[in-house]
Amino acid sequence: MKAFLTIGLLFLSNSFMVMAWYGHLKFSEWSWFNKLGLVAIVFVSWGIALFEYMFQVPANRIGFNQNGGPFTLIQLKVIQEVITLIVFAIFTLFVFKTESFRLNHLISFAFLILAVYFMFKK
């Protein structure tokens, strides 16, 4: 149960992270957002990133084996990185619609899955 909760929270966290880091590139299509300066855009991104932390910190606390969770610190980090790339790929394909998946992308995802496999192998 803690494993699924941790992974779910990491997906939520990374959804906000991707929006905070890259969403402003899409928001620039909105006329009111285009009028903002860089400092204002940074603050908007920080506001979105606050929600990232609201999910990331609990995910790590719940999932960390020294707090009774199922994952080591290294495993948590690898899971988080893979989730980040999955969320980023989905975000890019559906929000920007300027990118396309190619064979090399699929191969790289296969290697990421292998990385997770080897991370959990005893």
Automatic annotation (TrEMBL):
Q: Name one Pfam family in it.
A: DMT_6
Q: Does the record's keyword annotation contain Transmembrane helix?
A: yes
Task: Give TM regions.
Answer: 36-55, 76-96, 102-120
Q: Which UniProt keywords apply?
A: Membrane, Transmembrane, Transmembrane helix
Keyword Signal found: no
Q: Give the source's domain of life in one word.
A: Bacteria
- Report the PANTHER family cross-referenced here: DMT FAMILY PROTEIN (PTHR38482)
Q: What is this protein called?
A: DMT family protein
Instruction: Please report the organism this UniProt entry assigns to the protein.
Output: Lacihabitans lacunae
